[in-house]
Amino acid sequence: MTAFAFARALRAGETVYSSWCFLSAPIAAETIARAGFAAVVIDQQHGLWDTAGVVAAVSGVHHAGATPLVRVPVGDFAFASRALDFGAEAIIAPMINTADDARAFAAAAKFPPLGERSWGPMRAMALQGRSAAADYLREANDGTLTLAMIETPTALSNVDAIAATPGIDALFIGPYDLSTALSGGKAQDVSAPEVERAIDKIRDAAVNAGKIPGIYCSDAARALEMTKRGFKFITIGSDLGLLRDGAAAQLKAVKA
What we know:
The chain is α/β, with parallel strands linked by helices and 256 residues long. It has helices at 5-11, 26-34, 51-63, 77-86, 99-109, 122-128, 133-143, 153-157, 159-163, 175-182, 193-208, 220-228, 239-255, and strands at 16-21, 39-43, 67-71, 90-93, 145-150, 170-173, 212-217, 233-238.
């Protein structure tokens, strides 16, 4: 995989599809990459991953020719920096509710003068086949992406300020938390009118700020709809869902 190909594709306006990994199985992340996805998200917020698993999965996805992303736990910006050192080329940060949250995220993920990321990307450089530190440093701020998750009413009210924050590269919609919050905890209907309006508002805020709009989708049909609505980074399903659905389909076939 060419170094920072993921960032270059999105910055060029291409649409990039990814899948999502909850299970603490690096081989699952690698297998999804080898299926042809351009990127794979390793979810440490709600997934079962420990640090060793993240390191192995990042390497496996790299070797499979795709880009590894890591979703960090809420507020764990220290791990955002570590994940980039491990070789992740994008970080998804949940519950970015204010411009202050966005600035703290960008500070951990970007090198000076844009941020305060500490130097130490030895594994990342090895996975890219680099030996000159200056080459990585020169390209890293543009090549490693920060995706701020917008998933609460507070974030929605601050979305323009979050999008305008230097060092934030993308807005990423968590539709299930967003729908839960907008319904007052009564529903998870990602197609509810108020959720659909919020999705469009977040997309517009990203586009107006020159940032990348992204969203999680449960299946390909929803992903194609979001593609038509102008989203550029789109995740489709998860390893757990693919395993569950595939197992259920095979069992149904033999019992038919």
